[in-house]
Amino acid sequence: MKLRPVLLVLLIVCGFYYLTTRMMPVGALAGLLHHSLPLDNTTTATLSGPAGSFSLTEAAAAPAFDAEEQQNIAVYKRALPSVVNITSTAVAFDFFYGPVPQQGQGSGFILNKEGLILTNNHVIDNAQRVEVTLSDKHQYKAKVLTTDKAHDLALIKIENAPNLVPATLAGSQGLTVGQRVYAIGNPFGLSGTMTRGIISAIRSIRGQEGNPIEDAIQTDAAVNPGNSGGPLLNSRGEVIGITTLIASNPNGGADQSAGIGFAIPIDTAKAVLDDFAKYGHVRRPSLDIVTLPIGPDIADQIGLPAEYGILIERVLPGGAAERAGLHGGTQKAWEGNTPVMLGGDLIVGADGQTITTPQDLSNVLNAHHAGDTISLVIFRGHQQISVKVTLSDAKETASGQSV
Question: Which CATH code for domain 179-248+255-279?
């Protein structure tokens, strides 16, 4: 009795094999399957002329866009009116000291109906004339209001431009690797170009001038020269970043996309804009210290009470840390070929957050303004203490590698 199901299955399989190989011509089954599918929505057109006649198969009607295409189109239509092309003209001098105009191109996006536009500082740096072309092809002269080289941002303005469409700014907190993003700009001067990709990573990088960009958004959406200053958008067409940098092509093509681009997070830009509005310039908050990141190996070698943190090597004179009574190092040592100062305070917490890397500390500082007071948790020797520090303006302190 138990063999009956097995025998029945074998009988069905053998019958199907005999039917399809002996009684049906080759391809007959495929033909049946083909005819069971909906017929193609096509027509045949015949063209005739001196070269003879030939036929073409044409679609009878344009196919409907699928859901993914509809989203792409919706993002483009929403964001394009806010994106501008920026042309900057600087004057260089030839071998005979004759003035030679040099033009550069970039992108930007409209912030309000009064004509404020955000872009990268390197797009308009040293320019004698800046012009903005809107998506409707109208051109306007622009005035540079203020710049922030440290964050590679610039605020410019055009006058008497009617019907401006401001971009919608989202937040850059909570962005996730794998999230879909779109870049709109003017690569190689090709205005209104959109590319699509994903967020590949969130990491700290160095900008074109060596400036640190914390929590930069890395993307594989194609970006090229001319995209700089344009918006990086989420799937709702909201700005989450400002396209600023492309990775150099390892094969030597440093001036074209290598599949890795970076954008300044929009929250950084919002903080900069807030300073622009309040003070007319950026007041970057600073602790005015030179630091050394600590990991388990270094901590064990020098006998620190914690396996992580930021060791203060030097306190800058007159800065926030010195005013708060923080201590720098007193013992000279070497890390490879680099001299370091040991014996200073070890920062392990700030504003209730654990500090394990310089990026952790930068994230806390970026959430504040110069003049704000934050609470640090430090180890001085093996004693853990809490210290209040009033942040200073980085412009007001002595030069040095500090945070």
Answer: 2.40.10.10
